[in-house]
Design brief:
Layout lengths: L16 E4 L5 E4 L2 E3 L4 H11 L6 E2 H9 L6 H19 L4 E4 L2 E4 L8 H17 L3 H13 L12 H27 L3 H14 L4 H13 L3 H18 L6 H11 L3 H4 L30 H16 L3 E6 L6 H11 L8 E5 L10 H11 L11 H12 L5 E7 L2 H4 L10 E6 L10 E4 L5 H12 L1 H5 L2 H10 L4 H13 L5 H9 L4 H4 L1 E2 L2 E2 H10 L3 H10 L7 E2 H8 L3 H13 L4 E4 L2 E3 L2 H14 L4 H25 L22 H21 L6 H14 L14 H18 L3 H17 L3 H18 L2 H17 L3 H18 L2 H17 L3 H18 L2 H17 L3 H17 L3 H17 L3 H14 L4 H18 L3 H17 L4 H14 L1
Parallel strand pairs: 7-10, 7-11, 8-9, 9-10
Antiparallel strand pairs: 1-2, 2-3, 4-6, 5-6, 12-13, 14-16, 15-16
């Protein structure tokens, strides 16, 4: 039938149709958006699409478009025919069809309607969640939620559209709640708070969102706010609906009040245990009665072996460092899998860790006898015995456990050759040469598993009363099962000892390995077996690598330490990984288990000749780090003269392909850099160590690396490093090093918000810098004193210090330093009301940074410029500068500056009467952190409280203010009195 005028017949080459209802109702053919007509016509299209191919009668369509008050029947029928005709011209007659006096949309390809795609993804997410793959489920739900483009069926009239809008919005909120629930299960508590705060403001009566917000706050350590959310919810429900919160919300409040441990860590199902009747040959050693943890390994290996017992011959090989529990795991798994091997289980200790490993032909002779072969029928040669072994096993289902294998050559003749059998191998060497083997690398226990094992041996009563000391013990054991068992057995045998007594004995690393021995068990002896098997070059590498204090070491750093080309160093390190003496947590990165490190260090002191080679190796590592950090600094701070004032190095550093790669290296190596600086306090290395530390702190300026400036966090490492270097400079009477240590120590105090201590140290720097003629340190000290004076609102002093800094930086040719001082001067002029001058100074600073191509620090300048513009009343320009700064901070991972900028944007929204947006930005500031330490956090909490108060969440607002007041009072801040007055005024109101 030829097409009617105005209609088009689709061809095979025509792009497919697509439709959206999760937002405005729209239609596309390929990338071309099609006209869908008036609101009533779009309502008709939506009604047909949502029926998913079912026919809608004329009466149903009339009801959908006009409800109970349609125009005359003739008019509405004519209107429906007109709408359908227009849509058919666009979509094609084969898509919009007439049937039985009604209409339907048919023949659409899969995925043509966004709501159907969303339903499929949501179902897939549900299946992923049911299988335990929360990460996949979250990703799928996020894809579903991203499909909404505003309000569903936006701007469509009629009762049908309204009902469907409510249904789709309810579905969206349910999906969002499910995704947020998974966020909390995956540990994204702090990140979820900002989103949940905004959602509870938008949907104040939705109790599930309130539950999730309470849980997120509680898991983020904000118990008072969590309880305040409940109080606000109860008041709101009573005022608006005259009802109490639902039972789930009330129960959650009680659990928060009781600090229910299950809120912080969901309970895990117990592993299944079962036993089977014994069979012959049954050579498996007994499993230990206190076997603990390893549930995923037990389950995975049992499944692999059971598959071999039913079909193909399977080989599984477990590798790991000595003492990690390979044999215990293998024996336990073998017992678990016995039911799949009714014809027997064979076991042998191949003694691969000693000088004379078991001969394969001897082992085969033993196996053949156990399987009923008479001695007279056992041949002499290895090949004949291996062939007979495979023949005897043909048709049987037997499990072979080969413990402590030396290498793959020892194992191959001992493997069954027929389906229905399986072999389980343990070794310190990774059996990569065994083709088709299922390889498992066994690591140490988790802290929870380690404590469970310790408790099973020592007894619940003794551990319960000293849980903290018990955690110290298992941590000192490096969560290694053998070490934990030895320590626990020693304690169990000495009833007069307390757990804290044992913890104290293990606290001293120098004697820890000596303490970890009981009877014929000794951690040191286990390591000695593996070390004795190393070639001389491997042994040297293991000893020297153990000298470095960092948490791990990269391949280039290891090559510098060993004084080897990169390729040669990699071959050695990978051979140590294959021997399970060294771990490779990621490609090109290596680390020791803490007890192995202690062992190889003892070996270095005993075996490394001449002894000076130990110091030389660490000196090469320090040179490598200093040379590389200086290159990172030159890239990150173009034009800065610090790199021209560093000690010379004898080792080349790394080259980088741009700022992102350089900063990524720095972020990864931060812990190693600090450890190297702390370790290099001897006279020959001290000056290089202080230069390295100054570079680290300069790169890790506020907003780039520190999360919290509190004891027990990354900051405490900086402060302890500064103090160690300071004592060394004093001991060695090195004034040049002393000046730079004071620079670092003052920086550390400044970052932490301890302004008096920072100012005192900076003042000392100014005095000593003149003595040793370190002009750069003097400029830095003047700049720091200016920043501190700003914080303490001493603006006259601040202006004088910053003018001195700007002039000093200009004199030594440090453009970045000059720009920094100008931007800080802008902040002073804002504070004293000279807003036009403040804007000009900030613009000068930004111009210098941009001329240098220093985008990250230009963002700092834009942040200051935004504050100056806001003070000058140029609000639109101010917001634009702050948003530009925020984007750069985010791209450059300057977390604390992100948080600080969110805080300033929150202040602006609050002033503009937009409390919901203010609360959202303030929550993001809390999650990210801000420069300025605890005082800055208190300021954010104050702003958040004001936003929540404006939203009617009064109890939670007061919780925020009280937290802020506590911080300000502890810091003895002048802002405490103002906040105290605000709280009183709100309480009295």
């Amino acid at each position: 039938m030829p097409p009617t005028p105005g209609q088009r017949r689709p061809t095979a080459e025509e792009p497919a149709l697509r439709f959206s209802v999760l937002g405005p109702v729209r239609a596309w053919r390929g990338d071309e958006q099609l006209p869908t007509g008036s609101p009533q016509q779009r309502t008709l299209l939506a009604a047909l699409l949502l029926r998913e191919g079912r026919t809608a009668t004329a009466a149903e369509l009339i009801d959908a478009l006009w409800g109970d008050n349609p125009p005359s029947s003739i008019q509405v029928l004519a209107a429906i025919r007109t709408y359908a005709s227009r849509l058919r011209k666009e979509l094609g007659p084969e898509v919009l069809v007439s049937e039985s006096g009604g209409y339907a949309v048919r023949g659409l390809p899969e995925g043509a309607l966004d709501s159907s795609v969303a339903q499929g993804l949501a179902a897939e997410a549900e299946r992923a969640k049911a299988s335990g793959d929360l990460r996949r489920a979250r990703e799928l739900l996020q894809r579903v939620l991203s499909m909404w483009d505003g309000e569903s069926l936006a701007a469509l009239p009629g009762p049908y559209a309204e009902v469907q809008r409510v249904r789709l919005e309810e579905w969206r909120l349910q999906l969002l709640e499910t995704r947020l629930d998974m966020d909390l299960e995956e540990g994204y508590h702090a990140e979820a708070i900002s989103e949940l705060t905004a959602l509870t403001a938008a949907y104040p009566l939705r109790e599930r969102l309130r539950e999730l917000l309470m849980l997120a706050l509680y898991r983020s350590g904000r118990q008072a706010e969590a309880l305040a959310v409940y109080a606000d919810t109860r008041r709101l429900l009573a005022d608006e609906l005259g009802v109490d919160p639902r039972a789930e919300l009330r129960e959650l409040q009680m659990r928060v009040l009781q600090a229910d441990p299950s809120l912080a860590r969901p309970s895990e199902p117990d592993a299944e245990w079962w036993t089977v009747a014994p069979v012959r040959p049954a050579q498996l050693p007994a499993t230990v009665p206190d076997f603990t943890g390893r549930a995923s390994f037990v389950s995975g290996l049992t499944d692999v072996l059971a598959a071999g017992g039913s079909q193909l011959m399977t080989v599984a090989a477990v590798a790991g460092i000595g003492g990690v529990g390979k044999t215990t795991l293998a024996v336990h798994v073998a017992h678990q899998a016995r039911a799949a091997f009714p014809d027997g289980q064979l076991y042998v200790d191949l003694q691969g860790a000693v000088s004379r490993a078991a001969e394969p032909e001897t082992v085969l002779g033993s196996f053949l006898r156990a399987l009923g072969t008479p001695d007279t029928e056992i041949p002499d040669s290895l090949e004949e015995r291996a062939a007979l072994f495979r023949s005897v096993l043909d048709g049987r289902r037997v499990l072979v456990l080969l413990d402590n294998a030396k290498d793959a050559a020892q194992v191959r003749p001992l493997l069954p050759g027929t389906e229905g059998c399986a072999a389980l191998v343990t070794s310190t060497a990774r059996m990569v040469e065994l083709g088709g083997a299922h390889l498992v690398d066994l690591d140490v226990m988790s802290p929870e598993e380690a404590l469970q094992l310790f408790t099973k041996i020592v007894g619940t009563e003794r551990v319960a009363s000293e849980r903290s000391s018990a955690l110290d013990v298992v941590a000192a054991c490096g969560f290694m099962p053998l070490a934990i068992r030895i320590a626990a057995c020693r304690l169990a045998a000495r009833r007069t000892w307390t757990v804290s007594t044992l913890a104290a004995k293990l606290a001293d690393e120098r004697y820890r390995l000596d303490e970890l021995q009981a009877g014929d068990l000794a951690v040191k002896a286990t390591f000695e077996l593996g070390y004795a098997q190393l070639e001389p070059a491997q042994a040297r590498a293991s000893r020297l690598l153990g000298l470095a204090d960092g948490p791990d070491i990269s391949l280039p750093a290891a090559a510098a330490l060993l004084d080897l080309p990169t390729n040669g160093a990699e071959d050695l390190l990978e051979s140590l990984v294959d021997a399970s003496l060294l771990e490779s947590a990621a490609p090109g990165r290596y680390r020791y288990h803490q007890l192995v490190r202690l062992y190889v260090r003892a070996c270095a002191e005993r075996d490394e000749q001449p002894p000076s080679e130990r110091g030389a190796a660490l000196s090469r590592l320090l040179d490598f780090y200093l040379a590389t950090v200086s290159r990172v600094y030159a890239i990150h701070r173009p034009g800065d003269v610090l790199v021209d004032h560093l000690a010379a190095t004898s080792v080349q550093g790394l080259d980088f392909n741009g700022p992102a790669e350089a900063l990524s290296w720095f972020d990864t190596e931060r812990g190693n850099l600090l450890a190297c600086a702390r370790q290099s306090i001897g006279a020959p290395a001290l000056r290089r160590a202080t230069d390295l530390f100054w570079c680290i702190l300069s790169l890790d300026e506020p907003g780039t690396g520190f999360e919290e400036y509190k004891p027990g966090t990354a900051f405490s490492e900086y402060e302890s490093t500064a103090r160690a270097l300071g004592h060394a400079a004093q001991e060695h009477d090195d004034p040049h090093a002393a000046v730079r240590v004071l620079v670092a120590l003052s920086t550390a105090h400044h970052f932490a918000g301890r302004f008096d201590e920072a100012d005192r140290d900076a003042e000392r720097v100014l005095v000593l810098a003149d003595t040793v003629r370190d002009r750069l340190a003097g400029c830095w000290a003047a700049n720091t004193r200016g920043l501190i004076a700003i914080q303490q609102q001493r603006f006259t002093d601040a202006e004088a210090h910053l003018m001195q800094a700007a002039e000093g930086y200009r004199a030594i040719g440090s453009l970045p330093g000059e720009a920094s001082a100008l931007c800080s001067l802008s902040r002073v002029h804002v504070a004293i009301g000279r807003t036009e001058s403040a804007v000009s100074l900030a613009q000068q600073g930004v111009a210098i940074y941009e001329e240098l191509g220093d985008v990250p620090h230009a963002a700092n300048g834009r942040y200051v410029l935004g504050l100056a513009l806001r003070a000058a009343g140029r609000l639109r320009e101010a917001d634009a500068e702050l948003q530009r700064a925020l984007a750069v901070f985010r791209d450059n991972r300057r977390q604390l500056w992100q948080g600080t900028t969110h805080f300033r944007i929150a202040e602006a929204h609050l002033s503009a009467g937009q409390p919901a947006l203010a609360a959202q930005h303030a929550e993001q500031a809390l999650a990210l952190g801000c420069t300025g330490g605890d005082v800055a956090r208190a300021q954010v909490l104050t702003t958040l409280g004001s936003a929540l108060n404006a939203l009617g969440q009064l109890v939670r607002a007061q919780a925020c203010w009280i937290d802020a007041l506590s911080i300000l009072e502890q810091a003895q801040s002048a802002e405490a009195a103002e906040l105290r007055a605000l709280i009183r005024s709100r309480v009295s109101a």
